[in-house]
């Protein structure tokens, strides 16, 4: 099953548009767990097991693993998710962007090494920097469009031919890059007006929407702006608000993560 079909099935099976982000930060782990040699794997495994029936996708952010030289634990957690929850898409958040020959190596890393269903990519270097990912015809390329951070406006709001740059990205991906129906876009929940603009441009294309939870994006505005006619079309990501739902040690972290994931999924579903 390809990425888009797998995502559509997960939306239905789990009645969820929630993407659970995996941004493991040892400093925020329970102290006893943090001292384990494979603490990152164990933490992410607990989170995955606690939320797998509530999520439409999981999104490990590679920097949290690579910064600690913990790519081996990322490999293990991706393998674990694929083995135990093969119906939930796994998105590697790596925001890659480079010339084609190098992009092909990044694609091998995302799809062969980690077995991701999709990877986030940066459009700044143009189509030949994204095309190599399309050679894996059953996987997805999720292109940065209007990111959730305030500084994204520095470039993404620049006007060209009377329109902001992020709208050109949305139009270009929808009309030219998405030849095999493998593309999705990143649009921040912190920019609901722009989310609505992107939805109007790209039709049913899936959107990865980070920014609810720790970044303060409004759930109602996000869902109403980004939903498709069928009430889906988005992976609304929350990472820290789920992973660190409770002060260290005061409650079981996985139970707290489940509680917040459930609340977030249900809050999203109110407005679909
Ligand atoms: O525009 C973007 C693109 C990616 N991200 C990533 O999503 C999560 C958000 O984490 P929270 O803890 O829910 O804020 C994180 O991995 C970012 O690298 C984003 O925030 N904005």
From TrEMBL:
Swiss-Prot/TrEMBL keywords: Decarboxylase, Lyase, Pyrimidine biosynthesis
GO biological process, one term: 'de novo' UMP biosynthetic process
One Gene Ontology term of the molecular function aspect: orotidine-5'-phosphate decarboxylase activity
Catalytic activity: orotidine 5'-phosphate + H(+) = UMP + CO2
CDD domains (UniProt xref): OMP_decarboxylase_like
Any Pfam family the entry gives: OMPdecase
Pathway entry: Pyrimidine metabolism; UMP biosynthesis via de novo pathway; UMP from orotate: step 2/2
EC number(s) recorded for this UniProt protein: 4.1.1.23
Location of the Orotidine 5'-phosphate decarboxylase domain: 17-260
SUPFAM superfamilies (alphabetical): Ribulose-phoshate binding barrel
Enzyme active site: 95
PROSITE patterns with a match to the protein in the record: OMPDECASE
HAMAP family (alphabetical): OMPdecase_type2
UniProt record similarity statement: Belongs to the OMP decarboxylase family. Type 2 subfamily.
PANTHER family with a match to the protein in the record: OROTIDINE 5'-PHOSPHATE DECARBOXYLASE (PTHR43375)
Protein's name according to its UniProt entry: Orotidine 5'-phosphate decarboxylase
Organism (species): Massilia violaceinigra
């Amino acid at each position: 099953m390809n990425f888009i079909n797998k995502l559509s099935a997960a939306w239905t099976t789990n009645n969820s548009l929630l993407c659970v982000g995996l941004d493991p930060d040892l400093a925020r782990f329970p102290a006893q767990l943090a001292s384990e040699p494979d603490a990152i794997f164990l933490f992410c495994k607990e989170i995955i097991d606690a939320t797998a029936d509530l999520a439409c996708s999981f999104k490990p952010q590679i920097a949290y693993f690579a910064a600690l030289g913990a790519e081996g634990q990322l490999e293990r957690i991706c393998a674990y998710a694929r083995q135990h929850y093969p119906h939930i898409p796994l998105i590697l958040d790596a925001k890659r962007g480079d010339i084609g020959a190098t992009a092909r190596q990044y694609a091998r890393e995302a799809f062969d090494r980690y077995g991701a269903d999709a990877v986030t990519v940066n459009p700044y270097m143009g189509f030949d920097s994204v095309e190599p990912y399309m050679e894996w015809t059953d996987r997805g390329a999720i292109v940065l469009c209007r990111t959730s951070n305030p500084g994204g406006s520095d470039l993404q709001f620049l006007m060209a031919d009377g329109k902001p740059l992020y709208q050109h990205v949305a139009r270009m991906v929808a009309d030219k890059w998405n030849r095999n129906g493998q593309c999705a876009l990143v649009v921040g929940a912190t920019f609901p007006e722009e989310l609505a603009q992107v939805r109007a441009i790209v039709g049913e294309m899936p959107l990865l929407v980070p920014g609810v939870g720790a970044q303060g994006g409004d759930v109602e505005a996000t869902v109403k702006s980004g939903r498709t006619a069928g009430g889906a079309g988005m992976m609304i990501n929350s990472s820290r608000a789920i992973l660190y739902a409770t002060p260290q040690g005061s409650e079981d972290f996985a139970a707290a993560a489940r509680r917040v994931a459930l609340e977030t999924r249900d809050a999203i579903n109110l407005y679909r």
